[in-house]
Write a structure and sequence with these properties.
The protein is an alpha/beta fold. It is built from twelve helices and eleven strands. The chain is 44% helix and 18% strand. The protein has a six-stranded mixed sheet, sandwiched between helices.
């Protein structure tokens, strides 16, 4: 009986070893320059690996939709999503959960920026934007498309295709800034964090482009985890992952997001995003 017990213990130990040897993978929406994302998330992978005791790998993707697809197909088990992409992913993967968000993501906002040639000045009231060329970020961006479109249409009372002379989609916030600064588009919508950080680093010529309006706040980015991670990586893994993300205190890591800290999140926090997406026809 003792020998049988030893065999059983050995088998259980083997299965435990196999479980934790599984590489834990994560991705992020490509909302900035790819090299900046790689630098940030490779550091995050090292941090998570050290804290969780498993190999962790960051998997870059080329588009917001590719991030959602990778999550749906379980090619990644965790993702740093925007508000809309997180809603999309969780709708496709029942049981997946938003577990952490940046402190600032509880009250995120968008900026509308304009090229100096427009003569548009900063205003608390909504600016007159008729007949300008306008660029959003990615088509699936919360801060670069969804919420700006909602605020524009709500304030003007018309659809954006009737307001603007020409509409573009830059692909990410960094390119939105570059395109408006260069005059490729006269006006654009951008994530306030990306703008503020770029200005702070001296990467924006504010004599050529400036903020003319800032939106009301809304919930945005979050870490969303796949259903079933406890089965693959061991009981309690999701809770340990959540505590690890919320416990991220390294200033260099936090500054790279940039976020003051991470705080708990849950799916219901993003119901306002889902309602807006349905209202403007971006979700069924």
């Amino acid at each position: 009986m003792k020998f049988t017990g030893m065999i059983l213990a050995g088998v259980l130990s083997l299965f435990s070893t196999v479980a934790v040897s599984e590489t834990f993978t994560f991705t992020a929406i490509p909302d900035e320059d790819e090299s900046q994302l790689r630098t940030r998330f490779d550091k995050v992978a090292v941090y998570l690996s050290e804290q969780l005791g498993v190999e962790v790998k960051y998997v870059p993707v080329k588009s917001y939709s590719a991030a959602v697809t990778a999550f749906r197909n379980n090619q990644v088990q965790l993702a740093w999503f925007g508000g809309l992409s997180g809603v999309q992913a969780r709708r496709l993967v029942p049981g997946s959960e938003a577990i952490a968000q940046g402190f600032e993501d509880q009250f995120f906002k968008s900026y509308i920026i304009a090229h100096h040639s427009t003569k548009l000045a900063a205003t608390d009231s909504f600016p007159i934007l008729n007949d300008y060329t306008f660029t959003f970020g990615s088509k699936d961006s919360t801060s670069g498309r969804l919420m700006p479109q909602y605020f524009i249409e709500s304030n003007v009372g018309q659809s954006v295709d009737k307001i603007f002379k020409r509409i573009g989609f830059s692909g990410d916030h960094s390119r939105t800034i570059s395109q408006v600064e260069a005059g490729v588009y006269q006006v654009g919508a951008v994530n306030y964090k990306v703008w503020d950080t770029a200005v702070e680093k001296g990467e924006v010529d504010t004599s050529k482009v400036s903020v003319i309006w800032q939106s009301p706040t809304y919930p945005d980015y979050q870490w969303t985890v796949h259903s079933g991670v406890d089965t693959v990586y061991g009981a309690g893994f999701k809770d340990k992952l959540t505590k690890t993300l919320i416990g991220m205190k390294d200033k260099d890591l936090l500054d790279s997001f940039p976020r003051e800290s991470f705080v708990p999140a849950n799916n219901s926090d993003y119901e306002p995003i889902e309602r807006v997406a349905k209202a403007i026809g971006m979700l069924d």
